[in-house]
Amino acid sequence: MTTKPTMIEFRDVHKYYGDYHALRGITATIRAGEFFSLLGPSGCGKTTLLRTIAGFEGISSGVVLIDGKDMANVPANVRPTNMVFQSYAIFPHLTVEQNVGFGLRKDPRSTAEKSQAVTESLEMVGLKGFGARAAHALSGGQRQRVALARALILKPKVLLLDEPLSALDKKMREQMQVELIRLQRQVGITFILVTHDQEEALVMSDRIAVMFEGEIAQLADPETLYRRPASRKVADFIGTMNFLPAQILSEAAGKVEVDAKGFGRVTLDADQALGAPTGSGASIGFRPETLTLLFEGQTATDRETMATVEEVVYYGDMTYYDVKLDGTETPMRMSMRNVFGRPVLDIKTRTRVAWSPGALVLFR
Amino acid sequence: MKQGAGLRIYAIAYLVFLYAPIILLPMFAFNESKVIAFPLTGFTTSWFGVMWEDAQLFKSLQNSMIVSGSTAILATTFGIFAARASTRYRFPGKGSIIGLIMLPLVLPEMIVAMSLLVVLLTVGIPLSIFTVILGHVLICTPFAVAILSSAFQSLDKSLEEAAYDLGEGPVSTFRLIILPLVMPGVMSSFLICFTISLDEFIIAYFLGGTDTLLSAYIYGQFRFPARVPAMLALGSILVLLSITLLAIAEYFRRRGVAKTGGKNTGGFL
Questions:
Q1: Domains in chain B and their CATH numbers?
Q2: Please, which residues 243-262 of chain B have a Cβ atom closer than 8 Å to chain A?
Q3: Which residue of A has its CA nearest to B260?
Q4: A7 pLDDT more than 70
Q5: Test the A interface: residue of B166, B174, B183 with most A CBs within 10 Å
């Protein structure tokens, strides 16, 4: 991927609410045209950070630049950003058309051109022919689309989305996720999404900033976040990760030799060793799909270990097992795709599991 | 059902006590006799004619309309400022300031009337409908603040932010978004302040000076038994008028609720 120019830059941004330190030295860049997500649990400062871009929230110290311009004294109504609010903030006393065209009030274009722009904008979000409807009579998904059309009609440099899908039901949410990705590719505007849903962030984003307690814990693309989380905390927040205690035996020449409970002695590449030393001892981490059940006649391509099934959760296409690797006490979560002809194992079954040292990560 | 019989009798008795006197008003207004007593003697509309020719009545009615209209406009305007400030901004001493604004709600009107009278006489401001407006604004503003606060409170803050985000300034945001959405509250506030002011007697009597207001005029007429039926005719008209006003207020409130897609939660009226 070619590196795109910078659209937004945070330089050591701090924000206090009285004594409460909401943003603790945010430094990051968001590139032009990327789909960027701010991901974190509630209260981590992700919405506050988004609102500092929009201009609804002042900052206590630091610099926020949009397209190279310092935003220090630029009020919200002249910033090159538009926002889709969590509540959508559709003006209930106006029609769909009036809502979408609201931002064009000071536009010097003729009424006919403006109404053409509104029609096009509505078409883009799949609301063709809805213009004359009363805004309050719309469903949640439709309001969402009106909010999008209303923001995008102004062709902002940055579109800010504050948990836009949280009020929708699961099916609608998944549909809107796909549509947002499509829309972002179509208009090429920088999208910044705030979400607490890690799955949503992984599905939609080019890059994600994971935030905890007012700080960015890791900023990376979805795959790196999933495969190489920077800390146990990030690993815990994104998907499921199993942990087993481990001991570092030696470190040399880009290799780390580890003795991990259940896995035995394994040699890892240096880039699999993550996180700053915590002092509470190292641990090996792995995702549920790292372990694979071995059935009669199958052999592991890499390494294998004996295990006991402790719990079975059947999901239709997938089965989740909690298995105890021999020599360990804590059950580990693993997932298996259900293939026709393969049985679902019962509790207490003894089985072989295959794994690969390359899929493990080490937290010091 | 048997269990509820006592309560039902109580409820009916209560309603009779509440509304029977109001029903008596038109009954005697259309009764021929000058004496307000049963049995009724015959149907007549002449009392309305007597009322109609009363020039002084019209003068006091005119005064009352000026007072009530001005009071409603002023109190509602102040109410908008106070409600907006109390729901949107944080400032030191907010609680006590709002408390002081709301205090006249529970202050006996007599005290308000007396203290205002003392001040006005000391300062040397002549008593007129202007001084009555002053007093009425004082007692009506808390009602306006109460009604408008709930209207402002139910307003989603992100609507305002969305308007800023789309390029509007504070003034145009207020005009285009906030005001239309709190309009039902503004209408209710206006009508309630108008009604309170029209009804009010003590302040109107104390501070009116030589300008007689409707409430004080009606009270004065009751000293002459012959004038009473005409006053009852006037009362009947006032009852009809207030029912109309309330219906209008309720219509606006419901339309406002429907317009914003909200749930009808009963409202003030």
A1: 66-256 (1.10.3720.10)
A2: 259-261
A3: A92
A4: yes
A5: B166
pLDDT in tens, A113-155: 999 999 999 998 888 888 888 888 888 889 999 999 999 999 9
pLDDT score at B243: 85
Domain count, chain A: 2
CB contact under 8 A, B161 and A103: no
Residue pLDDT, tens place only, A29-68:
999 999 999 999 998 999 999 999 999 999 999 999 999 9
With a pLDDT cut of 90, the percent of chain A lying above it is 56
pLDDT at B266 over 70: no
Domain residues for the domain of A253 are 240-364
Alpha helices in B106-199 (DSSP H): 109-123, 129-153, 157-165, 170-173, 179-199
> Does the pLDDT value for residue A1 go beyond 60?
no
CATH number for the domain harbouring residue A105: 3.40.50.300
How many CB atoms are closer than 10 A to CB A72?
11
One domain, residues A324 and A362: yes
* DSSP code for B34: S
Maximum Cα–Cα distance for chain B, whole Å? 72
What is residue A104's DSSP assignment?
A: G
Is A317 within 8 Å of A337 (Cβ atoms)? yes
**Cβ contact, residue pair B260, A82, below 8 Å:** no
- Are residues A282 and A320 part of one domain? yes
* DSSP β-bridge partners for residue A352: A294, A306
Evaluated on CA atoms B35, B40, B41, B42, the torsion sign reads positive
Beta strands per DSSP E along A19-89: 20-31, 35-39, 61-66, 69-70, 81-84
Rounded CA gap, A19 and B137, in Å?
A: 42
Judgement on whether residues A291 and A342 belong to the same structural domain of the protein: yes
